[in-house]
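User: My instructor asked us to take a sequence, write out its structure as tokens, and then describe one feature of it. I'm not sure where to start. Here is the sequence I was given:
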Amino acid sequence: MAEEHKHDESVIAPEPAVEVVERESLMDKISEKIHHGGDSSSSSSSSDDEDDKKKKKKKKPSSPSSMQSKVYRLFGREKPVHKVLGGGKPADIFMWKNKKMSGGVLGGATAAWVLFELMEYHLLTLICHVMIVVLAVLFLWSNATMFINKSPPKIPEVHIPEEPILQLASGLRIEINRGFSSLREIASGRELKKFLILN
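Assistant: Let's start with the prediction itself. The structure tokens for your sequence are:
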């Protein structure tokens, strides 16, 4: 009886070792799915083959060089953040690789926020004030060139062609007339559907 009991223990003893190997292989699979995006294309037969190979092989501790070669990215990303942001200058500005440019963008955004939110300045007012300042600078510059014997600034002549403006006005006139005729039909009670849509 005691011999049978000892024989049963020797048979039971290898099972925990197999269970530990299965747990380790399961943990390897989970970590591999997390780090490699969990490819669903692999079939169950290939995963069974991998399990058999892992059971046969003894686990070797991974060397530091192999650990450094694997780069694990946050949330399983495959691309670095620089490439996700589009690369180039915009990504450099967002990632603060070009500190002067990033500081300039941040300073400009802060100045715009202060002007428009804190001081309640309006865009149209800003444009008008900028145009007045530019006109004053050009006027003073052209008058000062007479005293310092330098050439005055070259201000280009601007002419608006007649044809595009007439085409735009004609198209606008046609659309306005269509709108008036549609409103007239609705008001006369002919277009119930359009009346309900407008209301």
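For the description part of your assignment, you could build on this observation: The chain has ten helices and no strands. Try explaining in your own words what that tells you about the chain.
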